[in-house]
């Protein structure tokens, strides 16, 4: 198998730099002839990128239109999430996650059931083979290697990522509980351990081609309004509302934490200007009513809203939204929207807290990197049972499938932009100034900013109302 460094070196000899995603593609294909063919295709350009991969056509997945909707809720319309129940649903839930994500990996590699390795270890010893498993446990050994227990529906095996294997080890350090991985490697001579050589994630296909609307349309994307908090920035919001009056935006998406809520954290009472939850939603409703009625508004809940914490979170129920304007659609968290054919996956982003704690080098200052990690794993939230409560249902709504053109998150109150294999990731900041708690945690919000995305070009713009 070709190593990353070897691939890069051979391109350099041919006077080319090479994009990292091309390196991982060639490594996965394990076809050295690709290097010369691609270098030839890229003659005259310095950097070899995915567009030079022979025979690789940009593809879009799935049908865009049954009819020709302006706004369609593809997944997560109000009332679609079920109640949380028992142990059996957790089994269904993880099986569904495994099935969805393993099939994404299996389309790129030939794998065998873990059971086959366990049953005839002598047969597979010293032979390179591949498995796909969900991470049941992951830890760093005393010697600094990564030891991962992976499970498929047939069995479980311990996988060792040696810290000396530089390239796969950096990824191994980022393995999260309950993500699904493909691993290529060799069985130990006693059959008790699998030595990993390479790690594969479900990932976004390298030839993913985002859909662009064929007619004009702009969407404004925000999050974390926190109405009712004494740090809610009403003047900045008013400037935003004035700006919307004159803008040509057709959609306004709000990714949760619409209000500050009641009893969300200890001592919150002292930081509320509106201490009644109904009143908080009524004031928020009034703010939406003041926006142009031509704008289609979509609002989802976050962890400060009145619905259950466990994700998927239901839409805000009607008893709180009686005063909301008719142009506002209430949806669940997460939800998948279709705006003129452009798909937006909107997720509040609670799992970002968990991922920042688990991924070496991750920071609240750079939420875009976390969105890349979500896309690589094709999961909005990987670990089960940490700070992000997950409602185990028959299907895993936190799997990213189908791929959206835009992934919108919030929660961390810091703006971030990323573009990962054609998917635009936006973390939309907040309308709340730094709270005492955030000051204590050394979190520096970037408040009062809105993203505007042109649906014809998928180019984002940030507008600052602070
Ligand atoms: O979250 C706003 C920001 O504050 C987000 O970055 C997470 C952080 N936060 C919120 N609660 C906690 C706790 N309990 N521990 C650590 N960090 C936290 P919001 O959902 O708006 O409160
Ligand atoms: Fe928030
Ligand atoms: Zn939040």
From TrEMBL:
Provide this UniProt record's keywords sorted from A to Z.
DNA replication, DNA-binding, DNA-directed DNA polymerase, Exonuclease, Hydrolase, Multifunctional enzyme, Nuclease, Nucleotidyltransferase, Transferase
Among the record's GO biological process terms, what is one?
DNA strand elongation involved in DNA replication
Extract the Pfam families matched here: DNA_pol_E_B, tRNA_anti-codon
Annotated CDD domains: MPP_DNA_pol_II_small_archeal_C (cd07386), PolII_SU_OBF (cd04490)
Q: What is its EC number?
A: 2.7.7.7, 3.1.11.1
OB domain span: 130-190
Report which reactions are catalysed by this protein: DNA(n) + a 2'-deoxyribonucleoside 5'-triphosphate = DNA(n+1) + diphosphate; Exonucleolytic cleavage in the 3'- to 5'-direction to yield nucleoside 5'-phosphates
Q: Name one GO cellular component term.
A: DNA polymerase complex
- Cite the GO molecular-function annotations of the record: DNA binding; DNA-directed DNA polymerase activity; single-stranded DNA 3'-5' DNA exonuclease activity
The record, for SUPFAM superfamilies, names: Metallo-dependent phosphatases
Where does the DNA polymerase alpha/delta/epsilon subunit B domain lie? 220-410
- Subunit (UniProt): Heterodimer of a large subunit and a small subunit.
The record's NCBIfam families line, in alphabetical order, gives: PRK04036.1-3
Q: Which HAMAP family match?
A: DNApol_II_A_arch (MF_00325)
Per the entry, what this protein does is: Possesses two activities: a DNA synthesis (polymerase) and an exonucleolytic activity that degrades single-stranded DNA in the 3' to 5' direction. Has a template-primer preference which is characteristic of a replicative DNA polymerase.
Similarity comment = Belongs to the DNA polymerase delta/II small subunit family.
Name used for this protein in its record? DNA polymerase II small subunit
What is the name of the gene encoding this protein?
A: polB
């Amino acid at each position: 198998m070709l190593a990353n460094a070897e691939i890069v070196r051979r391109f350099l000899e041919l006077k080319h730099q090479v994009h990292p995603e091309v390196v991982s593609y060639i490594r996965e294909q394990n076809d050295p002839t690709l290097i010369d063919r691609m270098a030839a295709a890229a003659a005259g350009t310095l950097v070899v990128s995915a567009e030079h991969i022979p025979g690789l056509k940009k593809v879009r997945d799935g049908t865009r239109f049954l009819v020709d909707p302006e706004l369609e809720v593809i997944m997560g319309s109000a009332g679609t999430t079920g109640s949380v129940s028992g142990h059996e649903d957790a089994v269904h839930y993880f099986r569904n996650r495994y099935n969805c994500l393993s099939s994404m990996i299996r389309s790129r590699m030939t794998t065998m059931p873990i059971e086959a390795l366990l049953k005839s270890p002598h047969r597979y010893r010293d032979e390179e083979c591949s498995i796909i498993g969900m991470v049941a446990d992951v830890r760093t050994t005393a010697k600094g290697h990564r030891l991962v227990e992976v499970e498929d529906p047939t069995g479980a095996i311990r996988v060792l990522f040696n810290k000396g294997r530089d390239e796969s080890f950096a990824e191994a350090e980022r393995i999260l509980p309950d993500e699904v991985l493909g691993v290529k490697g060799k069985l130990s001579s006693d059959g008790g351990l699998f030595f990993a050589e390479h790690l594969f994630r479900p990932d976004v296909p390298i030839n993913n081609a985002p859909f662009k609307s064929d007619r004009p349309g702009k969407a404004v994307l925000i999050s974390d309004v926190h109405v009712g908090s004494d740090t809610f920035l009403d003047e900045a919001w008013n400037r935003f509302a004035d700006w919307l009056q004159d803008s040509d935006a057709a959609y306004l998406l709000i990714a949760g934490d619409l209000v500050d809520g009641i009893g969300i954290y200890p001592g919150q009472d002292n930081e509320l200007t509106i201490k009644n939850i109904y009143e908080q939603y009524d004031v928020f409703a009034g703010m939406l009513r003041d926006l142009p009625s031509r704008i289609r508004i979509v609002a989802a809940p976050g962890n400060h809203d009145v619905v259950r914490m466990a994700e998927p979170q239901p839409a805000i129920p009607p008893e709180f939204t009686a005063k909301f304007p008719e142009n506002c659609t209430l949806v669940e968290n997460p939800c998948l929207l279709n705006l003129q054919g452009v798909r937006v996956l909107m997720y509040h982003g609670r799992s970002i807290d968990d991922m920042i704690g688990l991924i070496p080098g991750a920071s609240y200052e750079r939420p875009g990197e976390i969105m890349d990690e979500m896309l690589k794993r094709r999961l909005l939230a990987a670990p089960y049972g940490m700070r992000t409560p997950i409602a185990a249902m028959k299907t895993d709504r936190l799997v990213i499938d189908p791929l959206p053109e835009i992934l919108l998150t919030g929660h961390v109150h810091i703006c971030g932009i990323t573009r990962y294999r054609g998917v635009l990731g936006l973390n939309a900041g907040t309308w709340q100034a730094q709270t005492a708690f955030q000051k204590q945690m050394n979190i520096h919000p970037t408040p009062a900013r809105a993203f505007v995305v042109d649906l014809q070009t998928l180019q984002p713009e940030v507008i600052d109302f602070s």
